Amino acid sequence: MNPENSSRYQLFGVAAYLVLFVGALAWVLVITLLESSPAWIRDNALAVRCGLSGGLGGAIYLLRAVYLRCCVYRDWTSIWIPWYLIRPLISTLCGIVAFVFLSAGLMILDAARADGGNEFGFYALAILAGLNVDRFILRVEEVSKATFGIEKSRTAEKSSNKDSSDST
């Protein structure tokens, strides 16, 4: 098989996976809105929707990355395929973590709240968590250190040191 064709198939496969992932998120969202949805979904609708929001944020980020790598930079490589496949799942989990931290009061939204606006704050933070997983995890580790005294992971320490050296 021609390497160029193989690369196109990989690119198409990743893009199709991401579009199907967004479709699955939409399908689960519809299920959360139905009165006939399972009780565990109705009882945890906000957490489920935060996970969906995080997944959507991650999918947006990745679809943009596919576009940039393919069309703008023209440097698509298959070495990143595992990242494209795993990242939406991590983004979804980060959306749920955002829900847990907001619900526990460990992260606070400073925006003024309108009636029902509280849920939109949850969704907004979940989308941001999915869009920028690395920064969100750093923030979670900062909150964990301040609240519980849990030291940052080695990865977070390396990232913090890199950020401080970049700013000088």
TrEMBL record:
The keyword Membrane belongs to this UniProt entry's keyword annotation: yes
UniProt keyword terms in alphabetical order: Membrane, Transmembrane, Transmembrane helix
Annotated TM spans: 12-34, 46-63, 84-108, 120-138
Protein name per the record: Uncharacterized protein
Source species: Luteolibacter algae
Organismal lineage: Bacteria, Pseudomonadati, Verrucomicrobiota, Verrucomicrobiia, Verrucomicrobiales
